[in-house]
Q: What sequence folds into this?
């Protein structure tokens, strides 16, 4: 930094290493998620602000590389190359690798679905999922995301955010579309639940994601004071009440989380 240039001016300078065409391609790929699986070219333009001629070339380039796929009706969706990259990233994650054995042992011992997730914006990204075939839920799999405000893992990870950070994280969240019968209907209601979660050190989801589904989640810590991830046990409400989640299942889950945390700190 030159003596006559402030830190703010330095940060405001354009990145001379930035490749604009690549940045636009990444912006297009980021449009797709669990809820937005297909878009038309005009929608891509509207959502990114990229002019139509440029968007056409970006999409065509990504399509040629297998990162996008064009459907007969003109829709555009992620291609196989994106899935390959995502799978490689997950397989290479030290968190996933270190968690695999403890999670598998837990799943086999209790016969219920076990998940590992991290917070990405206002959603929980599932990094590992060992599913009990009897659990009736949406088609959640590794790489899926769900709104953090309603999941036990999401609420647990949000509980470590202060009020200002929480409001920033959930600035675009629409509480009027709460999916389950017991879901929070405002950020104030959620914030009160999060304070209780932080005090007790674990989170319960009682038919907030969907009717008939409950779960309990505990944090996994690495070298930081904030959780590096969360793990949970998901069950059908017909098999387990909230008391069993808070008691025996949580205790088994906590033992697994402590094991994973030790592995992370030692890695």
A:
């Amino acid at each position: 930094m030159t003596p006559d240039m402030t830190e703010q001016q330095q940060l405001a300078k354009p990145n001379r290493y930035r490749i604009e065409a690549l940045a636009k391609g990444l912006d297009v790929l980021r449009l797709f998620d669990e809820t937005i699986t297909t878009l038309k070219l005009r929608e891509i333009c509207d959502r990114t602000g990229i002019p139509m001629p440029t968007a056409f070339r970006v999409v065509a380039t990504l399509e040629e590389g297998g990162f996008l796929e064009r459907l007969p009706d003109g829709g555009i969706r992620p291609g196989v190359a994106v899935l390959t990259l995502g799978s490689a990233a997950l397989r290479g994650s030290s968190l996933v690798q270190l968690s695999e054995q403890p999670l598998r042992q837990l799943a086999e011992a209790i016969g219920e679905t076990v998940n590992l997730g991290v917070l990405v914006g206002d959603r929980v990204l599932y990094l590992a999922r060992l599913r009990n075939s009897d659990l009736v839920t949406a088609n959640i799999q590794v790489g899926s995301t769900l709104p953090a405000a309603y999941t036990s893992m999401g609420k647990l990870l949000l509980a470590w955010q202060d009020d200002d950070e929480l409001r920033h994280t959930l600035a675009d969240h629409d509480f009027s579309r709460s999916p389950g019968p017991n879901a929070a209907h405002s950020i104030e209601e959620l914030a009160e639940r999060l304070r209780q979660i932080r005090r007790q050190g674990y989170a319960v989801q009682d038919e907030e994601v969907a009717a008939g589904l409950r779960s309990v989640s505990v944090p996994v810590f690495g070298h930081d004071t904030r959780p590096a991830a969360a793990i949970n046990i998901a069950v059908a409400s017909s098999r387990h009440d909230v008391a069993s989640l808070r008691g025996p299942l949580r205790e088994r889950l906590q033992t697994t989380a402590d094991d994973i945390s030790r592995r992370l700190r030692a890695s």
Remarks:
- The two ends are 36 Å apart (CA to CA).
- Residues 93-266 form a domain with the Beta-Lactamase fold (CATH 3.30.450.40).
- The chain has a mean pLDDT of 87.
